[in-house]
Amino acid sequence: MTAALCGDGSPLGSAVVSGAALAGASPFTYVIGGLATGSRYFARVFARNSVPFQRVSNIGMPPSNRQYEYSMPASLAPAFIQPTAPQDAAVEVLYGDEVRVMWRAPRRTGGRAIVAYVIEYDTAATFASGADGEATGGFSLVTQAGSGLNNGSITPIPFIGDPAVANGDEDSDRIFYFDLPGLEAGQPLFFRVAAFAGQGVGQGAFSLAALPAPIIPSNAPEQPTQATAVVVETDVTELLGCPTDSMTAVEVEHAPLTHIDVEWRQPSETTGDSITKYRVEWYEAGAFMAEVQQV
Fold it and tell me: How far is CA 1 from the centre of its chain?
């Protein structure tokens, strides 16, 4: 068995594995980098000790005291692989029916440029509630590297980060984001982000960064309805802080009415989230009311 060699008969590359890399029991490993995708490579390994290299025979076999072990399989060709998942996927609620999905580029693209991102959402964590067992909804976002997929026309993906870095560059620290409007307020939704790499979506591989908990689009509730206010009589004892039998009939009769009963009904629309409390505010006549400019 003969390994692939350079024109002068020497290996294309070699590395010495020693020291801490040999700590512990075998097997030992070494990752060969910088290879060309699609090219076939052979690998072999030999052990060394204090005995120096020496030729055994100039014409015989073996030609030296190096005892090689050849890899199995005999050769391999580095291939494109699917990209890793987009990093740091997150979702935040913007309004009652709109959320923002954020993510970073995959740590590794698998050897090809990222040409598109796909955002999907579903009412179930299985992402199979839609037609034909697919996600309920989603959007495809094409990067500059994938502009050929959309007849050369793309809508730049918004991002937070260095604008000098090319759109879709996996080495940037930018945070991509996309706003999804038109969702149903109050409906819990799961989201995930996929990265496609390659010359086309059909050839590109993808991976998913699923968010573990559902997001509920919601907004502040509408105003309560049918609010009314009436002056009410109160217990004089509570009002004046003294027992009734210590007061004269005239004092009881002319005790001031200082209580107002405010009543209301729930809002017609809660905008996606249950109401946990109400706040009642009151003002004196002529007092400044921040939210009332004219009556």
Answer: 49
Q: Confidence band (pLDDT; 50, 70, 90) for 60? A: low
Q: Which two tokens stand for residue 113?
A: 């440029």
The residue type of 279 is R
Final residue before a domain boundary, out of 40, 55, 79 = 79
| Same domain flag for 178 and 245 | no
Q: Is residue 65 in a domain?
A: yes
- How far is the C-alpha of 56 from the C-alpha of 199, rounded, in Å? 52
In one-letter notation, the amino acid at residue 236 is V
**Could you tell me how many residues make up the chain?**
295
Centroid of chain to Cα 35: 32
Spatial distance between the Cα atoms of 7 and 280, rounded to a whole number of angstroms: 88
**Does residue 25 sit within a domain?**
yes
Does residue 215 belong to any structural domain of this protein? no
Domain span holding position 38: 1-79
**Confidence band, pLDDT 50/70/90 cuts, at residue 279:** confident
Residue 194, number of CB atoms within 10 A of its CB:
23
| Residues 106 and 202 occupy one common structural domain | yes
Look at residue 3 in the predicted model and tell me its pLDDT: 45
Rounded to whole angstroms, the Cα distance separating 195 from 204 reads: 9
Would you say 103 and 175 are in contact if contact means Cβ atoms under 8 Å apart? yes
DSSP string, 238-260: HHHSS-GGGS-HHHHHT----EE
pLDDT, mean of residues 71-94: 84
Same domain membership, residue 279 and residue 236: yes
288 burial (CB, 10 Å; 0-12 / 13-18 / 19+) is exposed
Among 158, 261, 245, 149, which Cα is nearest to 201's? 149
Is 0.70 topped by the overall pTM?
no
Are 142 and 164 part of one and the same domain? yes
User: Which of the four pLDDT bands, split at 50, 70 and 90, describes residue 166?
Assistant: very low
